[in-house]
Design goal:
Chain lengths: 329, 526
């Protein structure tokens, strides 16, 4: 992760234990201003606890957290005025309409009626809720409720927005729109800390933190994370003749820029070749194999393997589990 | 969403940033409190059924009570078992006396049937009048009317015992009146004989022959027996106290007259009239006095002799209008209590659910993250609920006025009392809300508060009925002071006592402080 000029959040060795293996342990991370940090992990892995620690709702038992330069447990009203928060569940009021709910949240931040009116019109347009402004909270769909929560959190134009699983339980189209909202906010200078269980959403973030059992397993850009998980980038090769498969493996394993060669399970002429950078090394790999003075193996097709973040996530988890097992043994 | 969408930041948000002035901070403080206030008011406004039930419910109960309540005394279904030997007129008068307080069954019961009906619950009371009631009275016994009940309600049992006591008093009075009437009849006939006896004694003072003397002696002996009978029938001295000296001395004079006639008889037996003239004269004078006293005795109504002391009741509230009774109808009397009950229960219920509901739905987390404080939350909620309850109470009071419930006192004091009761009750509700872990627990605590209030506030049972050590419990119930205060202001037109104002203010202050301390702990980082 690049060292930013200013960090919105700085956490060092933070531990908060509720029970054995429940809580968060030794968390160290930073979040640069103007970036999106996506915290990914399964349910119960400590994402919400991390958010609550950063919001000052919990105090760490060990370590320190600083948010916007202050200890969250000692936030003043001025600090709080710079922060927006979307909790995991819909906590607005079913008997108030969209406008009244948003007005209520805005009033907690001391906004005047004139400010509220202007800001609300802009935000309702922004999240496509303008037509539902008079609809009661209980009459909103799940997606609309989430958008209303976003409106509430943005009413006072916070510098730093925490969103705890804002896309949980909503359809992929709406999820995509939420991430568009978040990226638009990021582009306008806001800092966002977003938790999610949906691994594929990592690609929308500037930085991704992977969590499991209260521990931060990795934190990096999505690109770097992928490289770290796979040990580089993978070139998917399909040979013209299956008889050349063993020869191709041997040739590539001798080539010093190739990190790893693996057979693709269930096929008889496909290989996965790991290199530092697929774009840079693909032509060289083809040259080595098709060298008429060397192996002279015909490659039918070659392309960079596009792995999903689910695969990356699984690999990171497996690597961590293997390390843990190694430590224990 | 269009790809050129920008985050909305055109609104000038600069005043939210950190170069705020003190007036700006104060303004924002007020805006936050107002935010909670408006939110609560809007939420309640969106529940018209809740509002309708809060006003209509108690009013409907009051109207039904007014229409349906016909008797403040219990209706006691009673079997009266009378002996066969009772004279018809006595039987009639006895039934009339019992009917004054008990509802007599038309069914004829034997003693065993009546007890069985009592055990089944078909009857509330069985009264058994003994046989030979008058013979027993003549023998100086105290015949007993046996009264049975199968009551489980202590108040009803108290009523039965009191009504039976009052009924026996009435019967005793009737019996004595009857006896007095008979004594007066006897006295009238004796009075004629006494006058004749006096004439006879006058004749003895003159010259009478032996045959005439024997006749006089016979008449005087008859007279002596009549006076003895009269003496036995006249009321004892204690009973006729207050009826004048002449009546009080009637028995003594009768005794003296008998003794004197016995002396005269002895003189006549001895045959020496000349030596007994002084006694004869004295006896004649005693008979004259006795006649005089009898005349007075028979001139007084027998009821006056039996019940010399009467009472006259006057409620000073209605003294000017000439009406003896001045108490309100039950529906009016209970109306201030209903108002106090409505105010307290609504405030306790709203308060009890207010915080626990938001804590459970997760809104507390939002509040803790926002720059709003716990005091703003409390003030906003207090203000909104106070407004709602005041409006409800105003509508209910207006409806009560239409039902004839007066507001004799100063309406400004009424408004202040309503406000204090609301704040004190809200404090109790919020206190419940801070300690309850769930909605159902909060409702349970609110119901316990309601139950406590109905028993100990003086709404139905007078506070004087309780032991001194329970008074602190009575004092911490806001409704106790609400009932007393509203009754004084509405029904008497007087200002409630200082303790009503002070204790309500104390409850409101202490509960607010407790809620603030407990809520501050819940707002802190954990």
């Amino acid at each position: 992760m690049d060292q930013p000029a200013h960090n919105a959040i700085e956490a060092r060795d933070v531990t908060l234990m509720f029970a054995e293996n429940a809580g968060v342990f030794d968390q160290t991370y930073t979040l640069a201003e103007g970036a999106i940090l996506g915290m990914i992990g399964p349910s119960g892995c400590g994402k919400t606890t991390t958010v609550r620690l950063a919001l000052g709702l919990y105090r760490p038992q060990r370590g320190s957290v600083r948010v916007l330069g202050a200890d969250p447990a000692a936030f003043t009203t001025r600090h709080r005025a710079r922060i927006g928060y979307i909790p995991q569940q819909f906590v607005l009021y079913p008997n108030l309409n969209v406008v009244e709910n948003a007005e209520f949240i805005a009033s907690l931040y001391g906004m005047r009626t004139g400010q509220i009116r202007k800001r609300l019109n802009e935000l309702l347009e922004f999240v496509d809720l303008a037509d539902a402004r008079n609809r009661l909270g209980r009459q909103l769909s799940g997606g609309m409720q989430r958008r209303l929560m976003l409106v509430g959190a943005l009413m006072h134009n916070p510098e730093l927005l925490f969103a705890d699983e804002p896309t949980a339980g909503i359809d992929p189209v709406l999820r995509s729109r939420f991430w568009q909202y978040f990226r638009t906010l990021r582009d306008d200078g806001h800092t966002l800390f977003i938790t999610t269980q949906i691994v594929s959403e990592a690609m929308y973030c500037d930085y991704v933190a992977v969590m499991r059992q209260g521990r931060l397993l990795a934190l990096d850009t999505p690109h770097n994370l992928k490289r770290r998980a796979l040990g580089g980038e993978i070139i998917h090769l399909t040979l013209a003749n299956p008889a050349h498969l063993a020869s191709a493996v041997g040739t590539l394993r001798r080539y010093r820029h190739v990190k790893e060669v693996r057979y693709v399970p269930g096929t008889d002429r496909e290989l996965h070749v790991t290199v530092d950078d697929a774009g840079d090394w693909l032509p060289e790999v083809l040259n080595v194999l098709e060298n008429p003075d060397g192996p002279n193996i015909v490659v039918e097709s070659a392309e960079e393997l596009a792995l999903t973040f689910d695969d990356v996530f699984v690999r990171i988890i497996h690597q961590w589990e293997a390390e843990e097992t190694g430590k224990q043994s | 969403m269009a790809s050129d969408r920008h985050a909305p930041h055109r609104t000038d948000m600069s005043s939210l940033r950190h170069h705020d002035t003190i007036p700006g901070e104060i303004l924002r403080w007020l805006i936050r409190a107002r935010g909670y206030f408006l939110k609560e008011v809007r939420e309640i406004r969106r529940q018209p059924l809740l509002i309708a039930s809060l006003i209509g419910g108690p009013l409907l109960v009051l109207v039904l009570f007014g229409i349906g309540f016909v008797n403040s005394n219990p209706v006691l279904h009673t079997a009266l078992l009378l002996p066969d030997d009772l004279p018809a007129d006595v039987r009639t008068r006895l039934i009339a006396a019992v009917r004054l307080n008990f509802t007599l069954s038309n069914h004829e019961y034997t003693a065993d049937e009546a007890r069985a009906a009592l055990a089944r619950g078909d009857l509330d009371v069985v009264q058994i009048v003994p046989r030979d009631i008058f013979t027993g009275l003549q023998r100086g016994e105290n015949p007993t009317i046996q009264v049975y009940s199968n009551a489980i309600n202590p108040l009803i049992e108290g009523w039965i015992q009191y009504l039976a006591y009052a009924q026996v008093n009435e019967i005793n009075k009737a019996l004595l009146t009857e006896q007095m009437r008979l004594a007066q009849q006897q006295a009238r006939s004796v009075s004629v004989q006494v006058a004749l006896g006096a004439e006879r004694l006058t004749e003895l003072e003159g010259q009478v022959g032996s045959a005439e003397r024997a006749m006089i002696q016979r008449d005087l002996r008859t007279l002596r027996d009549l006076i003895m009978q009269l003496r036995d029938m006249t009321p004892p001295n204690g009973m006729v106290a207050g009826q004048g000296d002449e009546i009080q001395r009637l028995r003594t004079t009768a005794d003296d007259a008998v003794r004197s006639l016995d002396h005269v008889n002895a003189i006549l037996d001895s045959g020496s009239l000349e030596r007994g003239l002084a006694e004869i004269r004295e006896s004649r004078e005693l008979l004259a006095l006795l006649e005089q006293q009898i005349t007075i005795f028979v001139s007084i109504a027998p009821e006056t002799i039996v019940s010399p002391l009467q009472h006259r009741y006057q409620n000073i509230r209605t003294e000017g209008s000439g009406q003896a009774s001045g108490a309100y109808p039950a529906v009016v009397y209970y109306a201030p209590g209903v108002l106090a009950l409505l105010v307290q229960h609504t405030a306790v219920s709203l308060g009890a659910l207010a915080l626990v509901r938001e804590r459970l739905m997760g809104a507390f987390e939002l509040f803790r993250v926002a720059p709003a404080t716990m005091v703003q939350l409390l003030i906003g909620k207090y203000l909104s609920y106070t407004l709602v309850i005041t409006l409800l109470a105003t509508v209910l009071t207006a409806a009560m006025r239409l039902l004839g419930v007066p507001l004799l006192g100063n309406w400004q004091f009424f408004a202040v009392l309503l406000l204090l009761l609301t704040l004190a009750s809200l404090g109790v509700g919020f206190l419940i809300s801070t300690i309850a872990r769930s909605d159902s627990q909060a409702i349970q605590y609110a119901m316990i508060t309601l139950l406590l209030s109905i028993f100990f506030s003086g709404f139905f049972i007078s506070r004087d009925s309780f032991a001194g050590w329970i008074m602190p419990v009575v004092a911490i119930i806001p409704m106790s002071h609400g009932v007393a205060g509203f009754q004084a202001l509405m029904l008497r037109g007087t200002l409630p006592g200082t303790e009503v104002w002070l204790e309500l203010a104390l409850i409101a202050s202490v509960t607010f402080a407790l809620v603030a301390v407990l809520l501050r702990r819940q707002f802190r980082a954990t």
